[in-house]
Amino acid sequence: MPDNILFSKDPASDLNKFLAEKKYSKILVLTDTNTAKHCYPVINTIPSHSTFVIESGEAHKNLVSCENIWMKMTEQHLDRHSVLIVLGGGVLGDMGGFCAATYKRGIDFILVPTTLLSQVDASIGGKLGIDFHHFKNHIGVFQTPALTLLYSGFLKTLPEHEVRSGFAEVIKHTLISDENMWQHVKTSDLEHQNWDVLIKHSVDFKAKVVQEDPKEKGLRKILNAGHTIGHAIETYFLTNNRTIMHGEAVAAGLIAEGFIAVERNLLSKASLTEINNYIIKVFGKLQFSALEEKQIAELTTQDKKNKGNKILSVLLTGIGKANWDYEITLSEVERALSFYRTL
């Protein structure tokens, strides 16, 4: 486990210790409208600091919000010896970290993820960025936070749909790395999972992968399972003003990409049925029409993982195993979406 990741039972105390050692010149805490109310009171005893609250949600993960954050940092006279503490979910962590990494060519930032999705995925690995004209994470950088502080107590502040969204990444991590943990996970419903165990499992796995491949040249690509088709679904829904959680899209993507794996004889039909049954039991099904399949499929051509005109995807090679850089076709994507839609 990297020494910049800390599992905490008392986040205020642990933050105070870290900040005392670092002796930053200024501290700015970035929150959104939700975390300002529900999470900031847990850490507000840290040393003298200023705060900045922005609107919550994926719709605000853009350059306009970044400009507001950079302006606040400028108005507060943050220098290169200052720190930005980002208290929020994946959207705020991605964007706040991006703003810190680019402000005065980079200042330290601390991630305090408050959602399950951000704790098991977004806050680990140094990927930062914003959306651009509805393309997810289209503009961004790699930069490691000075500290990522994980406190499962924040999950108690979340509505169920937020926990469910993060659970998709937990499921993904077991499917690509650990069959035994998958068998453990699928014996319980969402409400009865042991989050401390699952968060640690996901963080251990992702951190190990990132350490081996920090810039996603090889092994780290495995973390994109479910995301080639999942991101296309998410982008289509958001572009058409339809509500969708990231985890819902990834869950659908895991099923669709699992279908392609079965078509290529990489995954057994029985394994796919096992995956489908559990995912649909937890997430339900996203609704889109046969006519929309082509439009969603077309969006996979914009995926960041692509190379030239090749659509690249991660495919399961069994439960607990996967490989990356499989070239898939638009026709396969359309068949996979049709399979999901008609389940």
TrEMBL record:
Q: Which residues form the 3-dehydroquinate synthase N-terminal domain?
A: 52-164
Q: What is its EC number?
A: 4.2.3.4
Q: Which organism is it from?
A: Chryseosolibacter indicus
Q: Which cofactor does this sequence's record say it needs?
A: Co(2+); NAD(+)
Tell me the Gene3D superfamilies matching this sequence: 3.40.50.1970, Dehydroquinate synthase-like - alpha domain (1.20.1090.10)
Q: Which PANTHER family match?
A: 3-DEHYDROQUINATE SYNTHASE
The answer to whether the entry has keyword Metal-binding is yes
Ranges where the 3-dehydroquinate synthase C-terminal domain occurs: 166-306
Name the Pfam families for this protein: DHQ_synthase, DHQS_C
Keyword set for this entry? Answer: Cobalt, Lyase, Metal-binding, NAD, Nucleotide-binding, Zinc
**Cited function:** Catalyzes the conversion of 3-deoxy-D-arabino-heptulosonate 7-phosphate (DAHP) to dehydroquinate (DHQ).
Protein name per the record: 3-dehydroquinate synthase
Q: Name one GO molecular function term.
A: 3-dehydroquinate synthase activity
Q: Which InterPro entries match?
A: Dehydroquinate_synthase, DHQ_synth_AroB, DHQ_synth_fam, DHQS/DOIS_N, DHQS_C
Hey, what's the signal peptide range on this chain? none
